[in-house]
Specification:
single chain; 13 strands; alpha/beta; Ribosomal Protein L25, Chain P; Alpha/beta knot; binds S-adenosyl-L-homocysteine
Length: 251
Amino acid sequence: MAIKSNIRLFLQNRLAPQAVFPLDEAQSHYLLHVMKLKNGDEFLVFNAEDGEFLAKIAEVNKKSLTICLKQQTRKPMSSPDIWLLFAPLKKDQTDFVIQKATELGCAKIIPVITKFTITDKTRIERFKAQAIEAAEQSRRLDVPLIEEAVPLTKILENWDKQRPLYFMDETGGTSAVFEAFLSAKQKNISSAAILVGPEGGFSAEEIALLRGLEFAHSVSLGKRILRAETAVAAALSCWQAIAGDWNTSDD
Ligand code: SAH
């Protein structure tokens, strides 16, 4: 028997001490044939509602295995309420965005279609699988929600005005990212969203539209033009450091 605590599996089952249940075929395959676990081996399972538990393989059948949960190892904890709105990019860059946004503790990811968005193929199921994998690896307890792609104009029409939307604007954002996020922190704003444009940037009309909205704030990430996926990682990192959960020393 061995404890493989580097293996963490996101499960939608209700988790509780002594719970016993079978895993589905894909999860069983991963544990048995990819990670080479055996009967009696232990690893971690988690979800946002119940937290993290030590799990033990109780029975191995041909295609599936049954696990038995032991003690809770971490209590449930959700990520800061920061959302990411991004214009889908080419496949590799979009993969990067989903993975990094998950690692950086984003609560919800919404693909938005803007005028210069180059792809109309949004592979939501692929995004969800990648978010689960990144959550497992980064020791998150929750997995970001991934919504269906929506046109930018539509999401702006239905926006909850209590949630500030910081749109990253390389055409001369009205505030530097530090000032914008510090001001949110000082106003005790913990629910917000970050919007990053496509490779070609926002159109002049989109910038004009965004600038005219009371809840939207134009933000600069400095003088250099960043690639969209870099802008996502930079903006989320700044949020976590200034107004999110990087500014506490607790666990
Ligand atoms: N069209 C531009 C580049 C767009 S960069 C050009 O080629 O000149 C893609 C997206 O990243 C932008 O829409 C913006 O949201 C973000 N971005 C990149 N650099 C930025 C910066 N310095 N400040 C704010 N946002 C930036």
